[in-house]
Specification:
By secondary structure, the protein is an all-alpha fold. The chain is 69% helix and 2% strand. It has four helices and two strands, in the order E-E-H-H-H-H. Strands 1-2 form a two-stranded antiparallel sheet. It is rod-shaped and about 100 Å long. 9% of the residues are buried.
Length: 181
């Protein structure tokens, strides 16, 4: 009889209120040596995840077109965990592929792996180029907001300088009147 319990996700140790699961197979896979077909599968997953990051990057550009810095920041925040996970997985896949090449175990999938690695690198480069442009746009938006806030501060200070102090004893009267003599 085959024991399928090893393939099942292990419940999180956070307690009964948590619905998170920690897949046992993924934990084992991250430390086990990878075959060329494992590397190929991982590259396919990376391309999918980079596609999600690419879509979020395009959304950042669209909200910056509307000068909506708040929505851009929310999208950057949403994207950050994906970017971290992709960086970690990319390093793992690259190390595994290097090990396979050194050991002469790349096999018949070597050309396909090289093509997928190029595709991952090209998509990552396009995202990075767009991010550089969007970062410059965010910096300009930040500087404009800073100037606006500084202008508001000067206006508040000017209004305060001309404001008549409020006293309980004297009723408020106009200080200047436009009358003909």
């Amino acid at each position: 009889m085959i024991d399928h319990t090893q393939d099942q996700p292990e419940a999180s140790t956070r307690g009964p209120e948590s619905r998170e699961v920690a897949p046992r197979a993924d934990a084992a896979r991250s430390h086990a040596p990878m075959s060329a077909s494992d590397v190929l599968s991982a590259l396919d997953r990376l391309l999918g995840e980079l596609g999600r990051v690419d879509a979020l990057s395009q959304r950042i550009g669209a909200v910056l077109d509307r000068d909506d810095g708040e929505a851009a920041l929310a999208t950057v925040t949403e994207r950050e965990p994906l970017v971290r996970a992709i960086a970690a997985e990319s390093a793992r896949v690259e190390a595994a592929w290097t090990d396979l090449l050194r050991a002469g175990k790349a096999g018949p999938d070597a050309a396909i792996v090289a093509t997928r690695m190029d595709a991952v690198a090209a998509l990552a480069a396009r995202i990075a180029d767009r991010d550089r442009v969007d970062l410059a746009r965010l910096e300009r938006l930040r500087d404009a907001l800073s100037a606006d806030i500084e202008g508001l501060s000067v206006g508040v200070q000017a209004n305060a300088a001309y404001a008549r102090p409020a006293t309980d004893a004297a009723p408020s009267r106009a200080r200047f009147q436009d009358r003909e003599a």
